[in-house]
Amino acid sequence: MTAATTTAAAPATTATAPARTPLFEARGISKAYGHVNALMNVDFEVRHNEVVGLLGDNGAGKSTLIKILSGVVIPDRGSFFRNGQPVDISSRRKSEQAGIQTIYQDIALVRSMSIMRNIYAGREPLGPLGFMKMGEMRRTAVEILDKYVRIAGITSPDLLVEELSGGQAQAVAIARAVHFKRDILLLDEPTSALSVRETEKVLAIMRELAESGVSCVFVTHNLYHAFRVCDRFTIMAHGQNVKTALKADTSLNELTDIIMSH
Amino acid sequence: MVASAVDSALRYRRASWQSRVRSHPAGPVTILFVVMLAGCIVASLLLPEQFRFLLPGNLSLVLRQIPNLGLVALGVGILMIAGEFDLSVGSVFVAAPFATAVAYDAGVPFALAVLIAIAIAVVIGLINAGITLGFRIPSFITTLGMLFIVRTAAPYIVDLYGGRKSLPFRPPEGFKEVLTVDVFGFLPAQFIWFLLFAVLAYLLLNRHFLGNHFFAAGGDPKAAQFAGINVNRTKTVAFVLSSVFATISGIFTITRVAVAQTNPQLFIELYAVAICVIGGLSLFGGRGSVLGIVIGACVLQLVQDIILLAQLPGFYLDMFVGLMIVAGVVINQAIKRKY
Lengths: 262, 339
Hints:
Chain A is α/β, with parallel strands linked by helices. Chain A has helices at residues 62-70, 92-97, 115-120, 134-147, 166-179, 196-211, 223-229, 252-261; strands at 24-33, 36-46, 51-56, 77-82, 85-86, 100-104, 184-188, 215-219, 232-237, 240-246. The longest helix of chain B has 27 residues, at 231-257. The A-B interface holds A 92-93, 96, 104, 107-113, 117-118, 120-124, 126, 129-132, 134, 141-143, 145-148, 150, 154-160, 162, 208, 212 and B 1-3, 5, 7-9, 11-15, 20, 23, 203, 207-210, 212-213, 215-216, 219-220, 222-224, 226-229, 282, 286-287, 339.
């Protein structure tokens, strides 16, 4: 697969090929549900230090692709590579081991639990007899909140998630993922239910993450949001990758036209 | 982006104690308990002949009664935090300890006889969990069925054992002593054991990884699963704990009264749920505290004592329990709407 892939409709953008092997590549991914082809020979890649927008209308295949990358759905065909080396992402755990973390807006965190307990849910640092290392958890929770995404308004890791705004909760989920060594974040409609101010925060966080070495896949219907933060775009329609383009080589109007024309 | 450790420590501090008390699930019940207790003390001082609350005999009786329901409520509460109910505890409380009495009466070593009861509890907990989680049936229904199955199975087993519906239970003296002695002459040992089990439950819920998983599985099973927690396995452990706590309570009870019988203890399961609701546990899972359960058990027993001392009809207790359950649901819904 070349750096910027085009499969069906539009030519590839080849003017600015990357110097490095992509961080993650999915090649020739196909998935059918009965007679319905959800994905047909799709190539998709995530480069180092970038935010890539995964765009398309409803039914385009974005969700299926995200589920496959998350290890929730097994593709019928296709292969995956991390830094050029084949990787297995056939389960959620394996996908996470490959550095991928999906952050769904509505199920990212347990709302009735504190930030600290959420950060460590399922990954508690354990001492003798399965007791949690509370001191270490607190210290690291504070570090996580400060290190990866500075979240205004969070005064204590003891705050319950339900006391946070949508944007703050997203930021905590992102911080948790980054701390646990995930360097590819799949953000599925992270801004769809947020206020304008909250949306700005999440978009800013994505940019900060990309610059600090964590690449983001931004799945959204909102082309304006995507165009503001993404370095590259992959547009899907009818289960195919119909265009991949660098931001410098396309425009908001062109992206809109491509989506509308399929 | 990276801040110094000093910055972090300043920016992220522990929540203030006022904030923690306010947001603690046991906050309202603690206030209720303190007010009720103060009211009882004042009434007892003002009317020492009519309202004998402060008599050592009365206080000792109250403390003796609390562990009975309190221990069952601890197990039910852990399961409620994990997002499920267990109504079968009412039957397990009777049947599993009866098995201990039967086995011991038949000559089985005492420790083994106790283990038989625990094993029965574990099996019932596993069956409850298997049916509830395997077939995605509300645990309320599964355990209601189990309540009746165990309740009717126990007399059947009794028939096989010569039809004796009650058995004298005389455990080894040492065991009986540590469960029935009065410490300092007035503090029943069972109350101290109840507090010890409460501490264990607190450590489990708040310091052990299983506790974190119980809260997560009950609060939002999808998010918990997404975080890598095996929700079904977590809930299965909670089902088993619920049964085991009911069995321990039953063994405490038959040791105290020196008789094991199969007559059902009516509504013990509902009282246990009521204690949890009074104690601030959510009926929808994910919220609650051991402190709330302990104080909830104390409140229920206090109400019962007030009814006795004031010579009110006994059904007032049922009315109180009913009111508390309904109030609990209303408060739970209000909290859900708030967030």
